[in-house]
Amino acid sequence: MENIALIESFSEFKDDKQIDRVTLMAILEEVFRNALKKKFGSDDNFDIIVNPDKGDLEIWRNRVVVADGEVEDPNEEISLSEARKIEDDFEVGEDVSEEVKLMDLGRRSILALRQNLISKIHEHDNTIIYKQFKDLEGEIYTAEVHHIRHRAVILLDDEGNEIILPKDKQIPSDFFRKGDNVRGIIESVELKGNKPAIIMSRANPLFLEKLFEQEIPEVFDGLITVKKVVRIPGEKAKVAVDSYDDRIDPVGACVGMKGSRIHGIVRELGNENIDVINYTNNINLFITRALSPARVTSIKLDEETMRAEVILKPEEVSKAIGRGGHNIRLAGQLTGYEIDVLREGAEEDVELKEFSDEIDGWIIDEFKKIGLDTAKSVLEQDIADLVKRTDLEEVTIKEVVSILKEEFEE
């Protein structure tokens, strides 16, 4: 009965970790075999009988009877006189099976057994969690904010599994409080030691794609395909969609009446501006659509270098570039082409780098960051707007404008 009582005391871990009885017994056998190896040098001559229904475990040691004084290996051999203490009719050469009580292993060994069992159950538990979440990679998952660190938010799901949402995987406008429910995709799952590290992301383009699947029935049903998603998290995104059914307008279906369908997605992403674009294999047309809301005059492609020169009217240039250069950057990522914006009449323009003798290089770079690389492109902008869009002082911008204006004065 002492074996049963000890096994029952070990079985408390089963309830804590929701591990099934059969698996627990398999782990127990492994743990006890390790203990036998340590105490007796080998477990080859031991039988461990596990009864998962009763929660019982028996250990039997098998030894061969040898003549008194001829025992060479006490673990595998037993003297005739010792054997006859078990049963008085044993003879030399016969096999003796003797039950080993757990208490015979000693108090220290039993304590070690318990620690080893805890370790093995945790290891098994972590393996199950790893496999579970590995299958969920790329899928949307919801968990609750447990505590907030400087570089990450720690979430717990309903099963108590820890999920990490690093700062660089969050949308810049994200703000969480303890107890908030947070949605994101399971971006990666790795084993660090024996513990799974589950990383969630809300900044990954795949999160936006999965939100389309979740919120738009035609995407979920496969009637509309999301061809590609590019994002600047919290700022702007472009989503190329297509339908193999000519009767379905993929853009209209995704946006909905007055934006009703996409509104929930925009709100989830911190009011991220989302452009939904009809996909096409016609690259000229695709680039034109990708640069929306700007209206393109003409496009010249170089397929070898994957560059596109796009001609626009001067008033369309700022639309094509977008705030902070976001629109043109995303259009390039969506189409796979590096896009150069040229203005109609650009042959009369002068590149900013030509003014490097009069204007410091770092100032020229500030203008380039927002897509302004020629004299006229700067002169077409409002000075107050340039102050907002660059890190330059108003007085500096006025000096640059004055220098550039001189170039075009008679």
TrEMBL record:
Domain Transcription factor NusA first KH, residue spans: 202-279
Keywords for the protein's UniProt record, in alphabetical order: Cytoplasm, RNA-binding, Transcription, Transcription antitermination, Transcription regulation, Transcription termination
Stretches assigned to the Transcription factor NusA N-terminal domain: 6-125
Gene Ontology molecular function terms on file: DNA-binding transcription factor activity; RNA binding
The organism's place on the tree of life at top rank: Bacteria
Cellular component aspect of the GO annotation: cytosol
Example GO biological process: transcription antitermination
NCBIfam families associated with the record: NusA
Protein's name according to its UniProt entry: Transcription termination/antitermination protein NusA
Gene name of this polypeptide: nusA
